[in-house]
Request: fold
Amino acid sequence: MPKPQTRARIFAVSLFLMGSGFFPLSAAAQSITVSDASMRLPVPGQSTSAAYFKIENRSDSAAVLQALACTCSKSAELHSHSSENGVMKMRREESLTLAAGESFTFASGGWHVMLKDVYKTVRSGDTVELTLSFAKREPVVVPVHVTSLFDEPDHQHHH
Ligand SMILES: [Cu+2]
Reply:
């Protein structure tokens, strides 16, 4: 049984190891900010939807967003939109690179997070969690506000 003093020292050493080796870029990871995250529920009969947010890289090095996961759906993919001969096309992207200081907005008609097989238990007004995974950085977890097409004032008196 180690004396309290020894135990305290072991604890201090393990904290040091975590700080220096296990999460070497924790300070950098904190400088990725995500705001205004929202998703709309799939329309009736569909199970696919999209999430949008604004992301800002406040760190001094490039950030590469590589993967996403949402507590609201079976899978989440990075997608872009582009117009080819007047036809909007959606494409799956491997990653999004943000230079130091750069910000980027995911929005309808542009880059979005494609949510596939959205769980039926998710309701309008809920808050779900989106996890953004980066190359050589800790993941960032953000709350996402769930909305529905039927939230719109136009639809509320249709009964
Ligand atoms: Cu898509």
Notes: The radius of gyration is 20 Å. Residues 10-25 have pLDDT under 50 and may be disordered.
